[in-house]
Write a structure and sequence with these properties.
- The chain has six helices and two strands.
- By secondary structure, the protein is mainly α.
- The chain is elongated.
Length: 136
Amino acid sequence: MEEYGKYINTPQTAADINSILDAVGQQNLVYWGTSYGTVLGQTYAALFPERCGRIVLDGVVNYFEWYKNLLPESAYSGMRRVLDGFFDECVKAGGRCSLASFARSKEVQFSSVQCIFRPAAMGRSGLREGAQDVLS
């Protein structure tokens, strides 16, 4: 991964789109992006405005938050409520929930799940790209 890691990011993916356009003989991009695809579309438009034909961005992710933050707040605004509900049900289910076998309270279950994501966040050091680029 060391020699190729620098090429795994959103700006490089945007540049790769030009290679695809050239390969199929198309001058301008016709694009419809949703969720992360809106970040890719915005990045492409910023880097290659002369090759933009029609671009539709649906379910737009905040471009500035994406590049600035490890996990943009807007990307997980409802996630905490969903997780709280999930862990409430896990506690109610007792032994029928796999997480309940090592954590009886929803707070401990939540902390356990958070630990899964910490290595990815810590691995960000030394990279110029955001964590989203590493994880996607």
